[in-house]
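Lab manual, section 2.4: Encoding a predicted structure.

Procedure: take the sequence of the chain (74 residues), apply the prediction step described in section 2.3, and record the output as structure tokens. A sample record is shown.
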Amino acid sequence: MTINDQTNQFLFELQAVVNRFVDEYDLNHATIIGCMEILKIDYLTSGDNDEVAFTADQDLLDEIDDESDEDLPF
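Recorded output:
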């Protein structure tokens, strides 16, 4: 099975699951999309996934810290 066939199969199965939940429960589209977004973020940031790795830029973090210190009145 090619990667395109696998992708299509995954998409069709995912669509079938979503359609089943729409039919069986009173979930609106915003709730379904919100759940998918949570799952997407969880998948992208999980430690088990080596394909996508988010690392903090130390210079950016230092700049944010410096800016937040300037806002303090004391």
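Check your result against the sample. The first helix runs from residue 3 to 24.
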